[in-house]
UniProtKB/TrEMBL annotation:
This is Glycoside hydrolase family 1 protein. GO terms for biological process: carbohydrate metabolic process. Belongs to the glycosyl hydrolase 1 family. Keywords: Glycosidase, Hydrolase, Signal. The keyword Lyase does not apply. GO terms for molecular function: beta-glucosidase activity. The lineage of its organism: Eukaryota, Fungi, Dikarya, Ascomycota, Pezizomycotina. The chain holds residues 98 to 590 of 590 of the full protein. It comes from the Eukaryota.
Amino acid sequence: NPAAMKNQSWSFPSNFFWGVASAAYQVEGAVKAEGRGPSVWDVFTHRVTDFIVGNATGDIADNQYYLYKQDIARIAALGVPYYSFSISWSRVFPFGRGEVNEQALLHYDDLINTCLEYNVQPIVTLYHWDLPLYLQNLYGGWLDESYTDIVNDYVEYARVVFSRYGNKVQHWFTFNEPIVFCGEYPYPENYFKATSVPVKQQPYVCGHNFLLAHGQAYRLAKSMGINGTVSFKNNGAYRIPLTNSSADALATQRAWDFNEGWFANPVFINGDYPQYLKEYVSDFLPEFTAEQKAMINGSADIFAEDAYTAQFYFAPSNTIEACVANTSDPLYPGCFNTTYTYSDQDGGWNIGPAADPAAPWLHKTSDWLPAFLHYIQDTWKPREGVAITEFGFGEPFEELKTIRADILSDPIRSSYYHDYLEGVLIALSEGVNVVGTIAWSIFDNLEWAEGYSVKFGMQYVNFTTQERFYKASFFEYVNMFKTYQQGSNLTIA
Ligand code: GBH
């Protein structure tokens, strides 16, 4: 009985936003329907050899393009007040620019209106990695060295979406996790138009375009007077020195700079890149003009962190200089090493897929969450608080047992959500302005390069029949708000 366990000093504020998330290419399917143009992800799934586990594609995925009414009804039935999804740019502009595809806008009209009819508030991300293929081949997509074409095309897309839905959405995210689309996926020249940008420079050209596009979209939204907060979703983890040596402390600071700080320092601190980027990748790092710095500085209302996990950092065994000279990874000339297992403080760290190569990055580290949230608030001082815009747990070979009719047991994920939300409650009680949490994910879906082999869903999907089944973790998640949110009137059995 959760009520009996309730800690009376904990509570989620009444205006705390919480819900579940998805992203267009991972769930929609219908990739050739109603005028959608191809995105780079259609190439990754269909053309790039040995890139996706099981040669999976998003051609059908969860078929949410057609099943969204039942999907919204299923989350509304549990009392979930927010649904966070992304809009597909190559549906709205099949060629990334030019003619608007009205059919796509009518589709998202109905998706958003259906949410509102069910009293589920939509949260919209404009870009979750699915760049219109035409733009990749026209000028290199995010590797556009003019720093204008991709920015202008993105901002025009943002304008169309803001003007259509601006009064219906409480929280906007311009982009999902720039570090992933700028650094983690290959742009192999045999699949896309060749780029003249050297490999080591590519992440920084892409990141520069991201910051310009994000900043301009933010300024546009404010000048249009659209409702709702506007931010971007940063990817991250809490970064902890392995020992109390100063070398490990410096390695940890390099890790912050080369991950969150790369994008968060310009947006939240001073319109410019952090110190260690300037120190180690100055050859590759474009510069902002004074006007651009002023435009980017302050261009987010909340700090949105996809905050799944934590990692320990330690210094390289050779000197930093030798490490920088030798690294072949363009993203990590910061030369830190990570580890996930720390035997002296092992509480929970090895739960889940830690040992599994499918998701080596993700561990249950809820004990560290309050410190993580303090760190974000203290370092980047967001005006309207910190939101956790994704968190969740992937189980590679999940064995689901029916515990009640149609409800499947997923105890590891249940314990992740329970303990993680306790971490949020502790941070709130200590004065961190946490404003919302969005769980990843509404249901199992195309887990990018992992195909359908890693499952993050709080609902199971039978991909043959498209039938959805709640997992017990979904009830655990909802029950935490039933128990702790001020004024909660959820009625979950
Ligand atoms: C989120 O990214 C995505 O926004 C979402 O679309 C996705 O479904 C969800 O996570 C679950 O994965 O260390 O080489 O194993 C989380 C971002 C994904 C970024 C894994 C780092 C590390 C790959 N992280 N990635 S590796």
